[in-house]
Write a structure and sequence with these properties.
Layout (H helix, E strand, L loop, with lengths): L3 E7 L1 H11 L2 H4 L2 E7 L8 H6 E7 L10 H4 L8 E5 L11 E2 L8 E2 H8 L4 H10 L2 H4 L2 H15 L8 H7 L6 E3 L2 E2 L1 H14 L7 H6 L15 H5 L10 E3 L2 E3 L1 H13 L5 H16 L2
Length: about 280
């Protein structure tokens, strides 16, 4: 029997969800996935929309034009089932994350503020690492605001993650970066989706076989957040995977400041290059 086309229209979280669905026999028997990454504005062909039997998508506002939810859904076949996927985001572990600096995907507003005051990188590093609560600000309020936003976003959606996030975020790290959920949340999303489709639960075999495509980079947590927020995993000595190498928070912050001091605008490329250089040095 021919498989039904499933369009997966999502950001990088679609990369992480797709293997869980494809490794679930009940789903794989019925559907073949065509993944389209919304953040690259990849075109959605009319022939695909017409043939689609299952449209898995994240909500996109009208400013996305032809890719917006309000423009895409009417173009689907009447027989197609459309399911909204969550677009998960959490600042609780990284209260200083900002997207205000072009080219720096994981910019740090506190570090940038210190540099903006004219501090030399070494002085900025020392002050930043000290973790003075007065300098850090109300990090608990940042986390609460982020949790509340997730709750509001999913209020009318079929898949819910905010309650799990609120319950467990302090006991275990549930995000790899601000917009890359970890395995617990991804398994939760896949399980809910499969049950919604009448295909659940997520099989244990899919969980065991899962390789998270974004676990090559864990955005380090400031160790001061450990006592401030009660995070047992936010420690000074913890090492995080960073594109082929591992760094403590202090080492990562020093690399961040080196990137900025050398006026390199692409932090991820800088970190990848550093990881490759370390790997090459270790193999000699």
């Amino acid at each position: 029997m021919a498989k039904t086309l499933c369009i997966l229209h999502a950001n990088c979280q679609g990369d992480a969800l797709r293997p869980l669905l494809e490794n679930t026999p009940a789903f794989a028997r019925l559907f073949r996935i065509r993944q389209l990454r919304n953040y690259t504005r990849e075109e959605v062909a009319e022939r695909d929309l017409a043939a689609c039997g299952l449209f898995l998508h994240q909500r996109l506002a009208p400013r996305w034009g032809e890719l917006s939810t309000e423009r895409l859904l009417p173009r689907l076949s009447p027989s197609c089932r459309a399911v909204i996927l969550p677009n998960l985001f959490f600042k609780g572990y990284w209260p200083f994350w900002t997207n205000a600096f072009q080219g720096i995907d994981f910019a740090d507003s506190l570090l940038e503020c210190l540099l903006g005051r004219g501090l030399a990188p070494d002085d900025a590093l020392r002050l930043y690492l000290r973790g003075d609560p007065a300098l850090m600000g109300d990090v608990a309020a940042v986390a609460e605001d982020s949790l509340a936003r997730e709750e509001a976003k999913e209020a009318d959606d079929p898949i819910h993650c905010a309650a799990l996030l609120r319950e467990r975020w302090r006991g275990e790290q549930l995000f790899v970066t601000v917009n890359h959920p970890g395995r617990v949340l991804l398994f939760h999303v896949a399980e809910q989706l499969l049950r919604l489709l009448g295909l659940g639960p997520l099989p244990e075999s899919a969980r065991r076989a899962y390789v998270h495509p974004q676990e090559d980079f864990w955005l380090p947590l400031h160790p001061a957040l450990g006592p401030l927020l009660g995070l047992p995993f936010a420690t000074k000595g913890r090492r995080y995977p960073v594109f082929g190498t591992s760094l403590t928070h202090q080492e990562y912050t020093a690399a961040y400041l080196s990137c900025r001091a050398n006026k390199v605008r692409d932090l991820v490329s800088f970190l990848r290059g550093m990881g490759a250089a370390r790997a090459a040095s270790a193999s000699r």
